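--- STAGE predict ---
source: upstream dedup step, 1 unique chain passed
mode: sequence only
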Amino acid sequence: MRSLLSRVFALSLACTSLAALAHDFLGSESCQACHPDAYAAWQTTAHARSRDVLSPQQQRDMRCLSCHSPNQVDQKSAHVACESCHGGGQYYSANYVMKDPELARLVGLVDPAEKSCRGCHDGASPSLKPFEFATKLKAIDHWTVEREKRKAARSK
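--- STAGE serialize ---
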């Protein structure tokens, strides 16, 4: 009995933690205001339409949704969106925070790396296509245009 109660308590704690994390997500539209070029570039990627490629049956399968719609819990994004890779923006989205990269990272901004991508793009992926990180990274480039604009603005 005690073991069962321990498991129930652990499960309820885990569910509460997941629910709390979901509130950290603001949705990609909140990123668009300050990062319009990155948002526009993201919209052209397969990530922005990731759930659309699933059949109606797959759209009800958590094995599929865990990669094609990882933030669906929060109902703010039904695709692989900004916060899917960069973490929930509730605490780092403020302009004064985003101007301080160290502070932004301290309060939740994630700089995704290959390991982050391989959470979905791995050998268990049903696509069975090899995942070439460097090549695929170019396909989702949504930062170059903004970096160039910031660089040009600083040099004026």
